[in-house]
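Hi support team,

I submitted a single chain yesterday and got back a structure, but I'm not sure I'm reading the token output correctly. Could someone confirm the output below corresponds to the sequence I sent? I've pasted both exactly as they appear in my results page.

Thanks,
R.
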Amino acid sequence: MNYLSPLEMLYKWEHEKPNEIYLSQPINGFWHNWTWKEVGMEVRKMATYLKDLNFSHGSKIALLSKNCAHWMITDMAIMMSGYVSVPLYPNLNAASLEKILKHSEAKLLFVGKLDDYSIMKPGVPSDLPCITFPFYSEDYPKWNEVTKEITPCKENIIREPQDLATIIYTSGTTGDPKGVMHKFFNFSFATTHASKALHFSSESFFSYLPLCHIAERLLVQMGSLYSGGKVYFAESLDTFAANLSEASPTVFLGVPRIWSKFQQGILTKLPQNKLNVLLSIPIISTLIKSKIKKGLGLNKSTNVFTGAAPTPISLIKWFARLGINIQEAYAMTENTCYSHVSYNDNINIGSVGQALPLCDVKLSDRKEILIKHIALMDGYYKNEEETSKTIINGWLHTGDEGEIDNEGFLKITGRVKDLFKTSKGKYVAPSPIEMKLSANKNIEQVCVVGIGVPQPIAIVVLSERGKLKIREDLINSFTTTLQVVNPKLDGHEKIHNLIIVKENWTVENELLTPTMKIKRNSIEKIYQKNYVSWYEGDKIIFS
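Hi R., thanks for writing in. Yes, this is the structure output for that exact sequence:
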């Protein structure tokens, strides 16, 4: 099969619908729009400027910005100019930024929309040239200035399928980020087949999860290119809800924390007991569901996804009652985000869906999920040792543990690498237990641990709702949760204590990855000294 590249898709829409809006971004409350023709023109001008810098073919160009129109324009300009993009998380600390810029051998850095660049700037080598985006200008040469006298590239440049397109640095859940290499073919293969399987056609997307992450890159950037769709951006956290409501996308991806925030917001306005009553009345139920979906901005959505981390079954069922059918998906950077998805007409709650076309999956003897298709990563940049441990005989070893039923639905049961051994010598998989505990709406984050103690203990960060509760109510709530959850667990898995800690786990304090996954190793380093004393204390402890 002949796969069109991302650049070829840009050329297609430039020609077929030049005056149709492609990118729409709110800046200071006003929506700025770029048509396919205007996007193409900006790409072509910057590509010419980059080529004139005369870096060697395949040189690395880094991109540091929150999601915005010029993020996507820049990425395509890097493609067109013959270079390789290195997208960076917009909340990296200076040390991590410096490490990646040096490791990737970046020749140039684009600096765009950021919350506080001054914190990150010390990580940028003093001899690294930088260009800054319109609207978010730093003290560097500005986009509009460097392209002002540039003649746009007239040629429809085609990159070879085997050319390296990008190096995506993983979010570092288990240690230092690794640079995942993907060629153009991988984007073409994954997006062509995923778009077809999901029946994408002129979709509208809402972009707010980091575009440097493979999920947003494939679903939103590539999904819009391959479907000829439209992309709306969020301006800020404060305007997120209003921006989403105004955009009303047909495709939406929310990580578990977003769905939890949506739920808390709804319950703040409409307590559960009252909601239950209203949903039990047929005509009113329809009106309530419609109002909630419209308020969230999901009234036009036909594909509503969750991924990146486990989403509690109870939360998915809660939204299903509102007519919002969340489709779980499962993939990773190393397989170009092409693995498993739940189709909107075939959702099996509790599973992450079925394998996408031309994707093979099997379980190892340890029940580790192994993935194989022709668009796996080319390897980790300058790290053959880790590459050889991850792709063995053509199979990607995901590190995730799973089960596959007779219909091909995959269920994630834990992390092979997250297993820990209690002092009894029993191995425990924390993830499934954390999922069960997360059904308690007073919990924002939870980490099940147990090295050096006989039974596992659960460390909990309270949700905003939980923080409003008095101590006695929280003790009763968590005691009830343990009484419900523990009988469902094997003897060696039963939670002995639940500890409520004061410190939030955030990206800034490096206890969450930029994709909002907990950094288990980092959390353990902080709290492990307390495990024994906590174990010997009360069932519910406020630390």
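A quick pointer for reading it: The radius of gyration is 24 Å. Let us know if anything else looks off.

Best,
Support desk
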